[in-house]
Amino acid sequence: MEDFRFNNKTDIRFGRNRIEEELRPAVQQFGDRVLLVYGGQSIKRSGLYDQVKGLLNGLSVTELPGIAPNPKIDSVRDGQKLAKDNDVDVILAVGGGSVIDAAKVIASAKFYAGDPWDLVINASERTKLAQVPVVDILTLAATGTEMNYGSVISNPETHQKLGTYGPNSPAVSFLDPTLTYTVPANQTAAGSMDIMSHLLEQYFDAAGANDVSKGLIEGLMRAVIKWAPVALETPDDYDARANLMWGATMALNGIVRSGNQNGWTVHPLEHELSAYYDITHGVGLGILTPRWMEFALNADTEALFARYGRNVWDLRGDDDQMVANQAIEATYNWIENLGIPMTLPEVGIADEKNFVAMADSAVSVGRLDVVPYVKLNTGDVVSIYKAS
Ligand code: NZQ
Ligand code: ZN
């Protein structure tokens, strides 16, 4: 096990309609000038927007609508200006991971004189800045951003989609599973895949003997595997939505990464797909994950793949290689049954012209030749893209 520091101060308010009593005081503890950040039409259609506006009645609320999936740096620039011009005390983010990710970077950018893209490229500088407190109401179970320090921001001009982190995780996160009843099937599937991928990235880790992490992850994976199909079948099943929501948060709030080396692989590969083709993050992960597994399985790794097969998929048998292969097949089938397209051409990536540039960038951004459980060079990444 590696040394680690674990420090997370996010105040989680989990359950049905807690915002009715708790939103206003949660926001107002930081002041009366609020920047309300949200995405497209989903919170207007569901009625959540009207409810939130009613609850904040009398406070000074400035709005930043239109945060797109794979949030773009231009939205962060707009938010920086609004946050400075209105000297906001607190940011309220209402939406999925994209909205909350953008809000967290805007929270830093208020205290930065230059272009916020600098804060994405250079996160260690960002952690030295102050940050406006972020309160959020999560509407989609996937990223874990509601309880972590990270954000992922895209720059379409440079074909970059990069992770950054700030000095704080959100101050208060409202997790109401009923708010995810309206998430469409394709986003429910993609979100569930994202949770599963976060768990896999931290399970297949180069640190030795971290049975605490592995055991926690195995339990969380079993929960996602069980409840994602239920949420797809019955979108208003509370138990399914609740398990996915808390599972998403637990998968990436820092607990299961503690003691790991934390070299991720499939995420850097996927971020290149989203950067070049603006595809849904969880869909890209669904396509790449089984191909990465096939690539990564070898004599050195088969024992861990077999453990995954036995403890997560209930596979039996003494032959590690056989169980490992069955585990990869089970993973593929689960993803396919969620309704996720399983090849790159199906999501419009029909030629290979950008594969080398994407692979080069993935290796350098993710330090894939140094940190992961199975190290990859540019040629390895290209072959995974080609197999997808
Ligand atoms: O824009 P609106 O109208 O709100 O619609 C959104 C959007 O179109 C819709 N949606 C959200 N909640 C809904 C809903 N529709 C109906 N009912 C609801 N309750 O869903 C669509 C996707 O939303 P988005 O926020 O983009 O999804 P997600 O939460 O999966 O976030 C994905 C982004 O997070 C990044 C991804 O790369 C991607 O940019 N990630 C962030 C991480 C982090 N901060 O720790 C880690 C992850 O690995 C990931 O990279
Ligand atoms: Zn992810």
UniProtKB/TrEMBL annotation:
Keyword entries, A-Z: Oxidoreductase
InterPro entries for this protein: ADH_Fe/GldA, ADH_Fe_C, ADH_Fe_CS, BDH-like
Chain segments annotated as coiled-coil in the UniProt record: none
Every Fe-containing alcohol dehydrogenase-like C-terminal domain range: 188-388
PROSITE patterns: ADH_IRON_1, ADH_IRON_2
Entry annotated with the keyword Electron transport: no
A Pfam family this chain is assigned to: ADH_Fe_C
Domain of life: Bacteria
Domain Alcohol dehydrogenase iron-type/glycerol dehydrogenase GldA: 10-177
Any GO molecular function: methylglyoxal reductase (NADPH) (acetol producing) activity
Gene3D superfamilies, sorted: 3.40.50.1970, Dehydroquinate synthase-like - alpha domain (1.20.1090.10)
GO cellular component annotations of the record: cytosol
Protein name: Putative NADH-dependent butanol dehydrogenase
Organism of provenance: Lacticaseibacillus brantae DSM 23927
